[in-house]
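Re-run with default settings, no changes from the original entry. Doing this only to confirm the output is reproducible before filing.
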Amino acid sequence: MLRALRRRWEAYKYRFVPWIALNLRHKRRTLRYVPEDCKDKIVSDEDVLETLLKIFKALFINDFTRQTNILALLPEVKSTYLELLHLQPSKSKITFSCYESENMFSPEELLFHTLGFSITRNQSSLVSAGTGVFVTRGFVPKGAVVAMYPGTVYQKYEPIFFQSIGNPFIFRCIDGVLIDGNDKGISKAVYRSCSRRDQLGLFHMSDVSWLTPVVQNPLAVGQYVNNCSPDP
């Protein structure tokens, strides 16, 4: 039992904020050194923005018939999407037919038709491997934006002690900002609370569907991609 607890602690301690704070100077491998911020980017900001706008626009059009309340407050945005739907059917064949027939595609299907691949969160076939992210359709080219890391963002000076207990989803950015991508327990409650607080009338400022089994943003599964290993 002690060996099992030790193995569990060795795998988890890099997510435990108090341990990180006390051992950061001694465990330099948990902090990468990058001389300039621009040299730490595998994919440029322009490529990331282009990909996100492409998939978010497709998701919006796919759900176009249910956006009446929001579009009523944004007539310019509504006219832009109507032009896209009716004047460019050849470039938007998938979304155009969806709008006309009101048969919505699933987020995974829409991701495949938009970016050429589809990913999903699922249980691994390996014993004790837990939950992971898998490419279910298509091909992912090198350098492509594959997923996002959803969660509550904490600045370096904000407390996150209780949220970090038993939480393997604390992601530490190179600038010290922490992202809590846990979709259960205290973390889930904190994110929902912040989402309701920041809501402006009918406008939801954040997506809460990643906290549920039915994810509306197919890219919001990055927290289930393994990003830490006990090996140097």
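Residues 89 and 96 are 6 Å apart (CA to CA). DSSP finds nine helices and five strands in the chain.
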